[in-house]
């Protein structure tokens, strides 16, 4: 205890320990010692404290083992038996003549656990729950306050809602796009009522026209997963991905690989496809051409 | 030179035979859009004195020609570059068409001609006399080709491969000469070696087997070596180079598919079906696919959707689609099947001459039809046949006939086979595109007629025979002289048919192949109760243009109470009435089932019938075994029975169309019942929707209940619990999908008593749009949404306008406001989430044009013009251009017309250029008999220039320009031009004509004919006609000739006929007459130099004068020429072009 105890809890513990020291000292006196070194007393105190703590811990375990919350006498007895203590000697020892009586340690300020905020009255146990069970927690931990109405499950309303929601989103989105970009109008005098996003030509117009949009792809995946395999193929397309200086051989090999894997997967028994477009490109023969 | 087509087999028009050709393109630059390479032709002379070799070549710059390594002189002359020289002020289409046909003839490889003429070096003459092999080596380059090869180079960052730049060969009929020198004929077969050196990141796809791919020394490029050992015509050679993604067909490893970057998933899905088409054709033809490999290439900016070449086909990339797309799937599959059919007939088997084209198109179209029948079912097939039949009938009646097998050069050419047309049908390159598509359509229909006659089994045997002959021949060496067996001719084909079937189909051929025109039947009947006989009257109209008389058997099917009976009537010269005995004597028995044609027995409610007659319905030619149009009269209840109980979809469709004329509750009920019947063919149901809308409109005052089809739609497609909300989309059942798409479109055509679309219907459609929910659907709903927009557009009626007020937002009709709201939202959403092929944008643009046209929105082409720009998807551009074309017509806008014409000249996409002309022709801003401020001299000049020289790189485009010119101005000199005669005086208001006082007395002096100057237009037309000289009598009548003067001219015309160019053209091939050249060049020089800035009328007057003097001389000259011609078939110094100008006097004046 080199440190100064300051909190009430620490004070409490110190007081208990002092009491234990007194107990140890009196037991020593009882056994005939006249004086003892401080360190010895301390060690014995430690031992005593451990012993008592162990009794408490074990007793708690036994009682919880039998689904109770508070230890009974039998728990203590079993504990002591388990710890190798002869319980039968205990009453005799308690009644020995030369024992010294120690006054109870002064009850100093009991450490107060800060009171949690309580909201409302705790619910009493219903009749079927035994009284020893823990109390209900504070109401605020389980009470709900509904803040919305019952969800509608009517089909018509749902469809109506989905439709108008989509329409609103679309309108807002397109209006936004129209506001932020160039527009065209059907009326010379009014450009805002029916704003049309200006037509912009593409460099490769067929791509947007033919490839399904991301939304549709998603849909397709949801409705039919068999197409999924195909889509991943797009990721490593052979020819157009290659940059200018990537080795042509490597590139060709990837074509080969990809195509064989692709068609091989469909008819597994025939793995080697002899197609002239899959064959590797030959190296030029030196001085062959005139 | 007059080649005989006959039993003797093929005689080449050339004095040599080509055996092998090497094409080597060693450099191709996408930046400069240029190609450098050489060709080497191996030829065997077939005559001893061969000293000139004529080849085809257009656009190519030829650097050097060597024959057997000796430098050879050559001359390049292409008269089709500028058809009419000497900027004459002719401007009449008759003149042009003749000149154009002559120019094409002058380079026609099938007549042994060509643009490139190579002199065989004199050192080799001896060699040639021994008929030894010659190797002609030509170095050439091609810079920014305008036709034949099309470069697509997107304007963006990155190298060419990253940009997806590609190039491909394209064109219509023989167009290979546009990209390398060759004998551009379908009848000159040879083996090929093709080499292309391209960037290492690119793939070159071409005909035949890819033998190897070799890097160049710097490893930056690679060379693709192709060998085509099957003898093939140059016109069937093709090329596509690009950074293609490669897909080996998982079912057939010798088939390879190519597409542009990023489209591989679509390619996989699209081509996954192809092997079934292969199987089908190989099975019915009992013949393997003739080439050792097949390649499909999908490219952007395609010239046509499908182009078939030897062992490869080039498709538009827009045919690619994912599994989510319903509508495109059958269309794309049809394209694939078509391309494959043409591999057998068209590529592998080629034709002897242009007049045999119908056999190839017919057979490929026919086997494609068989594939359709197997794939889509008999209903779809019959529907398609009916559709094709209706189309060809309508076209022939409109234009005067399509001739499948024109025979030229035989005897006196008074009967020019196509005198009713404004173009020559002697060459594929002079044909109007529409004519050519109709030609193909007729060809396959005629094949079907032949099948009807000889049975399908024999038909397939004939095909098999042709193919096996050809495949035997193809494996032979050139020396065996067997290669010509790979060419099909009309006579060979017919002989095969008679050998195999033992049947004589000559009458059929005579009727439908050697002769143009269709049959027009009018039928009506009466039932003679006493005799129990059906008196059928069948009349024919064979005097209108495009018709012909039919004599022969005709099947009539009569459905009586006792069953269905076929009768074969013999249609003869004078018999109109036919008595057909009826079987059902009894009046109807109660509760007796009626047997149908197919053996089914059904219960019918017979209360609607005429109590005295046992006839339920009558059909004339139910099998469509005559190319005909039938107008048949029977009572409404008979049509209703026919619709309900006849099982043939064609009969059902006919009944629906007939019922439009009978707006009664009974018709309504019959149509509604059909609509609801799920076993009924979906196209019939779709057609019933539109008929029901029409009937409802006719019965609007007595109509009871909700608007037509509304409750039906609600029952079929809306929720049970809340009928105003449509179910979430589920398009698994395609039949109901198509019906769901169509019904709103038809409903929107409903009108109430005020001739407005009922509010209820509009709100209904708006609700469909609002509640449309595709989240749970396996398929895309873009076509459905597009049709809902079409429905909105259909609901629009003309705005009520007071005093032509200006359209502003404030006076916008509230219904239109709602519609506009939807269109705006849809169109804007397309920018963020584009739909497949932008179908929704297309529908929106169309709808906006409808709103403009109906006066709700100010008419303004600016929006459409922005969407028509290059860089938008092609469907969008076409829709936008269509709106601009329509605007040009409605608002008579000169500015927009100019804008369109500029695009025709400058747009990078050939198809767009073609399509604009096509749309302008179909929806012309004015026609020849119409007064229009747009019709002025500048426009005439512009269009004339366009067809004369501006479109020489694209046959199709030039013919399109000719079509437009014909639609706008007719055959003769455009009426808006100042006249060479006194009529000019009245044309002052067109502020073009300045009167030259000196000319008036002169003209009167020189003009013996009285000139009635008060009647300028009609007269001028007639006048020009006579001078154009190849006009038929009807044409003149047609062109509103009112006065006697025209009559006189007409007779003059008749007198002149012997020397008409038409005749000369036919009697000899395009040939040149050095003799007549002299006076002529004097003449043209004179006319050219004479006061160019002067008044046109002056010119013409002079022409006329000159001609009068020259006329007789000319006749003599021509006689001379004919003799001269034989002597000097290689009038070398005289170019074909000058030959044409030689002819010009007789033509031009």
From TrEMBL, chain A:
Amino acid composition bias (Polar residues), ranges on this chain: 254-266
- Pfam families cross-referenced by the UniProt entry: Bromo_TP, TAF8_C
Instruction: Give start-end positions of Basic residues composition bias.
Output: 280-290
Q: Which GO terms describe its biological process?
A: cell differentiation; transcription initiation at RNA polymerase II promoter
Domain (Bromodomain associated) spans 12-89
Q: Among its keywords, does the record have Transcription regulation?
A: yes
Q: Which domain of life is it from?
A: Eukaryota
Q: Which GO terms describe its cellular component?
A: cytoplasm; transcription factor TFIID complex
UniProt keyword list? Cytoplasm, Developmental protein, Differentiation, Initiation factor, Nucleus, Protein biosynthesis, Transcription, Transcription regulation
Task: Name the residue ranges with Acidic residues bias.
Answer: 219-233
Q: Identify the stretch(es) annotated as Disordered.
A: 218-290
**GO MF assignments:** protein heterodimerization activity; translation initiation factor activity
State the signal peptide span: none
Record SMART domains: BTP (SM00576)
Tell me where it resides: Cytoplasm; Nucleus
Q: Which InterPro entries match?
A: BTP, Histone-fold, TAF8, TFIID_su8_C
Q: Which PANTHER family match?
A: TRANSCRIPTION INITIATION FACTOR TFIID SUBUNIT 8
- Write out the similarity annotation: Belongs to the TAF8 family.
Q: What is this protein called?
A: Transcription initiation factor TFIID subunit 8
Lineage of source species: Eukaryota, Metazoa, Chordata, Craniata, Vertebrata
């Amino acid at each position: 205890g080199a440190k100064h105890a300051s909190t009430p809890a620490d004070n409490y513990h110190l007081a208990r320990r002092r009491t234990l020291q007194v107990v140890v000292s009196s037991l020593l006196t009882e056994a005939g010692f006249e004086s003892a070194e401080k360190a010895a007393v301390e060690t014995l105190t430690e031992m005593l404290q451990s012993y008592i703590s162990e009794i408490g811990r074990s007793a708690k375990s036994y009682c919880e083992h039998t689904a109770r919350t508070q230890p009974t006498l039998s728990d203590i007895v079993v504990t002591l038996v388990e710890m190798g203590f002869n319980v039968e000697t205990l009453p005799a020892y308690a009644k020995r003549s030369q024992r010294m009586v120690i006054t109870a340690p002064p009850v100093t300020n009991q450490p107060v656990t800060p009171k949690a905020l309580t909201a409302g009255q705790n619910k009493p146990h219903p009749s079927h729950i035994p009284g020893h069970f823990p109390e209900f927690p504070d109401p605020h931990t389980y009470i709900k306050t509904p803040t919305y109405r019952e969800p509608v499950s009517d089909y018509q309303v749902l469809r109506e809602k989905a439709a108008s929601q989509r329409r609103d989103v679309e309108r807002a989105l397109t209006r936004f796009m129209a506001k932020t970009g160039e527009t065209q109008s059907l009326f010379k005098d009014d450009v805002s009522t029916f704003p049309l996003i200006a037509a912009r030509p593409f460099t490769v117009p067929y791509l947007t026209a033919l490839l399904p949009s991301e939304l549709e792809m998603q849909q397709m995946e949801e409705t039919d997963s068999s197409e999924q395999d195909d889509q991943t193929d797009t990721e490593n397309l052979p020819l157009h991905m290659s940059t200018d200086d990537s080795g042509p051989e490597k590139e060709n090999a990837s074509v080969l690989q990809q195509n064989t894997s692709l068609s091989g997967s469909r008819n597994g028994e025939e793995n080697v496809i002899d197609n002239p477009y899959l064959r590797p490109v030959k190296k030029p023969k030196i001085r062959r051409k005139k | 030179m007059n080649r005989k087509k006959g039993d003797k087999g093929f005689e080449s028009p050339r004095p040599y035979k080509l055996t092998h050709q090497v094409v080597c393109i060693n450099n191709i630059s996408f930046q400069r859009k240029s190609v450098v390479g050489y060709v080497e032709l191996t030829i065997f002379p077939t005559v001893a004195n061969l000293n000139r070799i004529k080849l085809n070549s257009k656009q190519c710059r030829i650097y050097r020609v060597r024959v057997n390594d000796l430098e050879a002189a050559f001359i390049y002359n292409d008269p089709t570059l500028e058809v009419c020289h000497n900027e004459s002020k002719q401007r009449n289409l008759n003149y042009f068409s003749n000149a154009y046909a002559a120019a094409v003839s002058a380079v026609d490889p099938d007549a042994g001609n060509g643009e490139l003429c190579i002199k065989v070096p004199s050192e080799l003459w001896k060699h040639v006399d021994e008929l030894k092999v010659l190797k002609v080596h030509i170095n050439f380059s091609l810079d920014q080709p305008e036709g034949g090869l099309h470069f697509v180079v997107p304007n963006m960052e990155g190298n060419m491969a990253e940009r997806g730049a590609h190039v491909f060969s394209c064109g219509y009929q023989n167009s290979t000469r546009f990209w390398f020198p060759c004998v551009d004929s379908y009848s000159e077969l040879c083996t090929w070696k093709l080499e292309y050196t391209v960037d290492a990141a690119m793939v070159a796809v071409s005909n035949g087997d890819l033998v190897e791919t070799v890097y160049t020394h710097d490893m930056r490029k690679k060379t693709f070596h192709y060998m085509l050992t099957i003898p093939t015509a140059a016109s069937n050679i093709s090329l596509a180079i690009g950074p293609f993604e490669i897909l080996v067909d998982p079912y057939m490893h010798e088939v390879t598919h190519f597409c542009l970057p990023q489209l591989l998933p679509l390619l996989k899905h699209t081509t996954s079906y192809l092997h079934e088409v292969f199987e089908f054709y190989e099975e019915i033809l009992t013949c393997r696919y003739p080439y050792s490999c097949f390649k499909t290439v999908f490219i952007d900016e395609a010239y046509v959707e499908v182009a078939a070449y030897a062992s490869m086909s080039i498709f538009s990339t827009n045919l690619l689609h994912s599994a989510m797309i319903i509508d495109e799937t059958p269309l794309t599959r049809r394209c694939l099947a078509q391309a494959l059919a043409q591999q057998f007939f068209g590529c592998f088997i080629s034709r002897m001459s242009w007049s045999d084209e119908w056999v190839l198109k017919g057979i490929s179209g026919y086997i494609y039809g068989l594939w359709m029948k197997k794939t889509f079912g008999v209903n779809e097939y019959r529907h398609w046949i009916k559709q094709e039949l209706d189309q060809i009938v309508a076209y022939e009646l409109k234009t005067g006939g399509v001739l499948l097998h024109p025979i030229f050069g035989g005897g006196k050419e008074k009967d020019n086979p196509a005198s009713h047309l404004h173009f020559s049908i002697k060459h594929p390159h002079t044909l109007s595109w529409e004519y050519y598509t109709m030609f193909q359509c007729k060809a396959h229909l005629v094949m079907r007629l032949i099948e009807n006659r000889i049975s399908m089994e024999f038909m397939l045997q004939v095909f098999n025979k042709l193919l096996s002959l050809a495949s035997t021949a193809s494996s032979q060496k050139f020396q065996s002289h067997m290669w010509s067996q790979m060419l099909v001719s009309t006579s060979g084909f017919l002989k095969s048919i008679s050998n195999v079937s033992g049947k004589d189909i000559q009458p059929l051929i005579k009727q439908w192949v050697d002769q143009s025109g269709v049959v027009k039947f009018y039928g009506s009947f009466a039932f003679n109760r006493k005799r129990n006989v059906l008196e059928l009257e069948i009349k024919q109209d064979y005097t209108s243009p495009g018709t012909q008389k039919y004599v022969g058997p005709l099947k009539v099917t009569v459905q009586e109470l006792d069953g269905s009976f076929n009768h074969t009537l013999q249609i003869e010269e004078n018999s109109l009435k036919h008595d057909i005995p009826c079987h059902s004597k009894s009046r109807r028995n109660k509760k007796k089932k009626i047997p149908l044609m197919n053996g089914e027995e059904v219960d019918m409610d017979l209360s609607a019938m005429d109590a005295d007659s046992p006839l339920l319905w009558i059909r004339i030619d139910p099998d469509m075994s005559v190319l005909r149009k039938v107008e048949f009269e029977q009572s409404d209840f008979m049509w209703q029975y026919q619709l309900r109980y006849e099982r043939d979809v064609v009969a059902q469709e006919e009944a629906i169309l007939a019922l439009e004329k009978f707006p009664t509750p009974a018709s309504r009920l019959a149509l509604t019942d059909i609509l609801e019947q799920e076993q009924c063919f979906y196209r019939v149901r779709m057609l019933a929707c539109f008929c029901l809308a029409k009937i409802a409109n006719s019965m609007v005052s007595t109509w009871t209940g909700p608007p037509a089809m509304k409750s039906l739609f609600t029952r079929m497609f809306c929720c049970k619990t809340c009928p105003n909300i449509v179910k979430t989309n589920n398009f698994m059942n395609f039949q109901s999908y198509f019906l769901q798409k169509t019904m709103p479109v038809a409903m929107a055509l409903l009108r109430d008593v005020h001739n407005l679309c009922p509010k209820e219907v509009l709100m209904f459609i708006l609700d469909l749009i609002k509640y449309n929910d595709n989240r749970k659907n396996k398929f895309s709903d873009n076509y459905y949404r597009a049709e809902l927009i079409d429905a909105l557009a259909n609901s629009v009626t003309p705005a009520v306008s007071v005093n032509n007020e200006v359209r502003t937002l404030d006076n916008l009709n509230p219904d239109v406001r709602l519609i506009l709201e939807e269109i705006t939202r849809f169109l804007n959403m397309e920018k963020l989430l584009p739909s497949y092929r932008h179908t929704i944008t297309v529908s929106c643009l169309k709808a906006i044009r409808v709103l403009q046209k109906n006066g709700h929105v100010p008419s303004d082409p600016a929006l459409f013009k922005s969407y028509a720009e290059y860089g938008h998807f092609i469907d969008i551009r076409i829709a936008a251009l269509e709106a601009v074309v329509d605007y040009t017509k409605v608002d008579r806008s000169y500015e927009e017309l100019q804008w369109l014409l500029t695009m025709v000249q400058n747009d990078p996409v050939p198809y767009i250029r073609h399509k604009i002309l096509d749309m302008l022709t179909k929806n012309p801003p004015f026609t020849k008999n119409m007064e229009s401020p747009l019709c002025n001299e500048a426009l005439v000049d512009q269009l004339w220039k366009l067809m004369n020289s501006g479109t020489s790189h694209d046959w199709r485009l030039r013919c399109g320009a000719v079509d437009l010119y014909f639609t706008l101005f007719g055959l003769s000199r455009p009426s808006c031009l100042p006249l060479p005669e006194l009529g000019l005086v009245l044309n002052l208001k067109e502020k073009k004509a300045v009167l030259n006082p000196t000319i008036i007395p002169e003209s009167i002096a020189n003009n013996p004919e009285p000139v009635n100057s008060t009647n300028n237009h009609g007269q001028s037309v007639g006048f020009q006609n006579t001078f154009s000289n190849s006009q038929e009598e009807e044409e003149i009548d047609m062109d509103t000739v009112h006065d006697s003067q025209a009559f006189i001219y007409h007779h003059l015309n008749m007198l002149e006929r012997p020397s008409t160019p038409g005749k000369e053209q036919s009697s000899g091939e395009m040939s040149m007459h050095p003799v007549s050249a002299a006076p002529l060049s004097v003449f043209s020089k004179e006319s050219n130099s004479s006061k160019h800035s002067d008044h046109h009328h002056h010119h013409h007057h002079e022409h006329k004068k000159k001609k009068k003097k020259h006329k007789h001389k000319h006749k003599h000259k021509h006689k001379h020429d004919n003799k001269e011609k034989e002597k000097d078939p290689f009038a070398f110094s005289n170019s074909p072009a000058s030959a044409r100008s030689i002819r010009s006097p007789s033509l031009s004046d």
